[in-house]
UniProtKB/TrEMBL annotation:
SMART domains xref list: FN3
Keyword field: Signal
Protein name: Fibronectin type-III domain-containing protein
Signal peptide: 1-21
Entry's Gene Ontology molecular function annotations: hydrolase activity, hydrolyzing O-glycosyl compounds
Organism: Xanthomarina gelatinilytica
Domain (Fibronectin type-III) ranges: 184-261
Gene Ontology annotations of biological process type: carbohydrate metabolic process
Pfam families associated with the record: GEVED
Length: 508
């Protein structure tokens, strides 16, 4: 039995060695064009604006690149491979990586193109163009795989990588490989759903395999191609991870008699919330923040505040009080997320507030919001993300310039109280250079409500208008209609100010 097993293994190994045959491999580490390759120069800018070597690799140290000609003359640059010997091939394929600008090549501009074709010296057949790829991100490396099975058995074909355009941008090419298509293909679409100490790993397998090998390690580790676990299922759960740590993993399909695939990966995941630490702020950033009835004091001129040591109770289905003081001198975009499903990701559906502060320094933004009645009970992470600009769409992981992020823990509870209901409006008294805020109470709730600005209190004696004030003209005040016995049901009324016209102040 052992001999039979060994013979099957030896046969499979020999078969896989043949099926993984390489007919061309080029990483452009020595020169561009490399030995055996040719480049056609057609632009008037000369050799520096055609195919050349660049220190912008996908792997290794160098790649092949065409720079655009700032003289805005037509460019039509070919990089042509050596003749391919595919006489022993049965199912060859072409793989390469490219990097270019979607903005200048596709939309909104169509100023240059990247075309790949194959030629026998007489007939040239198109294989692929960047227009076939769909939407992609500027200056990100992408891999393309093309079927060359139609050319199996030939020994006179050459690949042509072509840059064509006027007033375009750079195009970079790396890791060109012509090989036999494996009978056991690598998996794709690696993913991970995480907790603080575990991860559920998953992927897409094109082979119908039922077992896979994985190699897992800390982010940036050097893979050994020796599995840390073998014969795992898909999805596969790993535990005993360290919280707030970045990991990477690779996957290899086990196709039984068809051997194993090449390793796919790495895929990186983080056992915690994504970091959001902007590189700068304006002024001194954020001042104090009031959440519910709790005041969180700023630690100073910083770009990230961690307030998670104190958990704040917020009621399901009632208004959550949130007052944010800005000391920036600029308007700041403001977003608030709550991770209701506790998956360590602030999803788009978990965005509970969007607004913009004033440019006054200081200024207080009333970012209060109604907690969804369907919000899951218990403790969840809340994040306030702010920035001068750059969060379109809102980005809970923003770490760009001019911003401040703050994290909190909130405990969603079923309110044991009924909140009061009211609206408020400024009532100016310019004769005396002051103003009041008229609070129209339409429901007292089940408490004994009163109005407060944090210093003074005005008792609400019944339904109708209760006047808070006076406040000096030109000042700002933030008011809350307190429930009277349960802070969960306090109602934020907002932030108010008034500026009397000069002529009003001068009248006798």
């Amino acid at each position: 039995m052992k001999k039979i097993t060994f013979l099957i293994y030896a046969f499979t190994f020999a078969f896989c060695s043949l099926s993984y045959g390489q007919y061309l491999t080029e990483g452009f580490e020595t020169s561009v064009p490399p030995a055996g390759w040719t480049a056609n120069i057609t632009n008037t800018g000369g050799p520096t604006l055609t195919w050349g070597q660049a220190a912008n690799p996908h792997t290794g140290t160098y790649s092949a690149q065409v720079e655009y000609d700032p003289a805005l003359v037509p460019q039509n640059e070919d990089l042509i491979s050596p003749v391919l010997d595919l006489t022993s091939a049965t199912n060859p394929r072409l793989r390469f990586w490219f990097n270019m600008s979607y903005y200048w090549a596709v939309d909104p501009n169509d100023n240059y193109d990247f075309n790949v074709s194959i030629t026998d010296g007489t007939t040239t057949t198109p294989l692929w163009s960047e227009a076939d790829f769909g939407v992609f991100t500027n200056w990100v490396w992408y891999e393309i795989t093309l079927d060359l099975s139609a050319y199996a058995g030939t020994n006179n074909m050459q690949l042509v990588f072509n840059y064509t355009g006027v007033d375009g941008a750079s195009l970079t090419l790396d890791d060109v490989l012509v090989e036999e298509t494996p009978t056991c293909l690598p998996v794709t679409d690696l993913a991970a759903s995480v907790t603080y100490t575990s991860a559920n790993l998953s992927w897409t397998d094109p082979n119908g395999a039922t077992a896979w090998n994985i190699e897992l390690g800390a982010a940036g580790f050097t893979p050994t191609q020796t599995p840390t676990e073998t014969g795992v299922s898909n999805p596969h759960s790993v535990g005993s991870l360290t919280a707030n740590t970045a990991y990477e993993y690779y996957v290899q399909a086990d196709c039984a008699t068809d051997g194993t695939s090449t390793w796919a990966g790495p895929f990186q995941f983080y056992t915690g919330y994504c970091a959001s630490v902007p590189t700068s702020n304006d002024g001194t950033g954020l001042g104090d923040i009031v959440l519910g009835t709790t005041t969180f004091n700023s630690s100073g001129d910083v770009t990230y505040e961690d307030y998670t040591a104190t958990t704040v109770d917020l009621g399901q289905g009632v208004t959550a009080n949130l007052m944010i003081t800005y000391q920036t001198g600029y308007t700041y975009e403001t977003y608030v997320w709550i991770d209701f499903n506790d998956n360590l990701i602030f999803d788009d559906t978990e965005l509970v507030y969007t607004g913009t502060s004033l440019e006054d320094d200081p200024t207080t933004l009333d970012a209060s919001f109604v907690m969804p009645a369907s919000a899951s009970l218990g403790t969840h992470r809340m994040r306030i993300g702010t920035s001068d600009f750059g969060q379109t769409p809102p980005d809970p992981c923003y770490s760009g310039t001019y911003g401040v992020t703050a994290d909190f823990n909130v405990n969603i509870v079923v309110p044991a109280c009924a909140p009061p209901v009211a609206t408020a409006a400024v009532n100016a008294d310019c004769d005396n250079l002051q103003y009041y805020v008229d609070v129209n109470v339409t429901d007292l709730g089940d408490g004994t409500p009163s109005i407060t600005d944090g210093t003074s209190t005005w008792t609400v004696s019944g339904l109708g208008v209760t006047q808070a004030g006076p406040f000096a003209d030109g000042t700002t005040v933030t008011l809350t209609l307190e429930h009277g016995s349960d802070g969960v049901c306090d109602l934020p009324l907002g932030t108010f100010s008034n500026y009397c016209p000069t002529e009003c102040a001068e009248e006798p």
